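Teaching note: in complex prediction, the entire set of molecules is handled at once rather than each chain in isolation. The prompt given to students was simply: 'Predict the structure of this complex.' The entities are:
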Amino acid sequence: MYRLILQRLASIVGILLVVTIGTFVLIKLSPIDPVSMKFNLLGATPDPVVVAQIREQLGLNDPWWQQYLRWLGQIVQGDFGESILYALPVATILGGALPNTLGLVSLSLVIGIVVTIPLGMLSAKYQDSWIDHGVRLVTFLALAIPGFWVGLLLLYLFGVKLQLVSVTNTTGFSAYVLPAVTLALWICGLYIRRLRNAILEVSRQPFVQGARALGLPEWMVYTRYIFPHVGLMLLPMMGVTMGAMLGGSAVIETVFAIKGIGYMMVQGIMARDYVLMQGYIIWITMVFIVINIIIDVLSVWLNPKRRAAIKGGSYE
Amino acid sequence: MSRRKPYTLYVMLVLSALWIVFFLCAPYIAPFDPETTSVADRLQDISSTHLLGTDQLGRDVWSRILYGGKASLGIAFTIIGISGAIGIAIGGLAGFSTPHVDRWLSRLIDLVLGFPNMVIAIAFIGIMGPSITNVIISLCITKWAEYARITRGLVQIERHAEYITFARMSGASNLRILWRYILPNVLPPLVIVIIQHLGDAIILVASFSLIGIGVQPPDPEWGAILLSSRDFLQTAPWLLIYPGLAIFITVVLFNYIGDALRDALDVSR
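The expected output is the structure of the full assembly:
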């Protein structure tokens, strides 16, 4: 088990190298000139002599690999540079914003799971009945409706028509409910149908029919026989979903003006603040990798077969 | 699915064809120029002159939705077309070539699939600057890998089929076998996946425009029209409702056709 975790942690180094090189190359290719950027933001006309001086100071005239290694060295030490837009260390900005994003994503996951499980179970239990068709229609529509539009409609309905929430309030728990519901709707669209199909598939297995033949109560068949298998079937998909959610939360955060890391990134893009963008890319990659490692380890740890295989020394 | 003919599918196919043609004809139908501003007409409610009202710059929303549809559909088709072509080419190569090449290409495909596509797209647009071209490139960077993986799997099944052996015995070259024999067989399931992704592409592009990093003002696009709606929720709800409805209807049409075609051809998964 520890070996698996160590292996996954080692893969972080590789992925981080790919991501930093990719980011670095893109920035070198892009039309951004960091120095004149800074001047534009201050509203000053850059003096060519001063620009040349600053370029020399920042080491922008060094060979590209020296620049890359210096930057990489700073990142490893946790120094992500100073944001051009906010004139604050990027680590401070993103560190303050990350809890907002994680809070939003977790709240929507909780809402999504709480809605998905009963609906998926109902849909599977009453297969091909009107309930099943109704639930399938809802999931179909949930996937076809743009999330940001749902968000804006909710804001209009609860903020303007019913006056239940404040349109301008962006802090506190109540500000997170509407965006979380918006993201949760998408999770439901993705997972209700998958859960239904997984339950139907597992229910056909002999061990479930055996459990039913023994006369076990239905709740026991579900909790002891069906759900452990269904969970293991759906867990690996969660990694991809979490990645999409981190990206999607940037849109939802911007619509609801929640100051998460996606919101900060969009502000950074508007101001062409490349230091902030670099920081966002690396941070979100790290978050994504950590989530995926947790899911990987969980899906081995929760699966007795694979756990035994690792203990027995025959890894994978 | 059942034996009976999928009439609903035919109806939906005709409807979506009409829907697409309708927006392509935007320049002939639109009553106003989508970019002409008029301060006197700003934020007007729905009327017989302005069917869906006007926005904060006095531009006709109905005309902007028509032109915006042309842009939205065009961008989505371009993204799916380019990434589909690249994906099918690379996937076909991986599935049909030697195990060595296949191993490296598969590794590349897995690597790209491992990254969250929306995050990559936001990062790319952020650094290269917001524009239509960059939105298209940013989504193609990751999207092709999905088609490559599916194509590779399909080609690997087909390449061992008997008709391929016969083709080879009759002296057909590798390229001819790929193009004339394998491609027609793997294309139907791929087309279905591509149709299913069209709706996603429209939503993605619109969401980029909505947060200001996609299609830039004053160009009309469904997400770009929605961009200003948040500031005028109280005074001009029509700015919010109709562009969103246009996206919703389009995605419902495409997703329905994708699902129904899959059921009709009985392609598994």
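Point out the following to students. Chain A touches chain B through 48 residues (CB under 8 Å). The mean pLDDT of chain A is 85.
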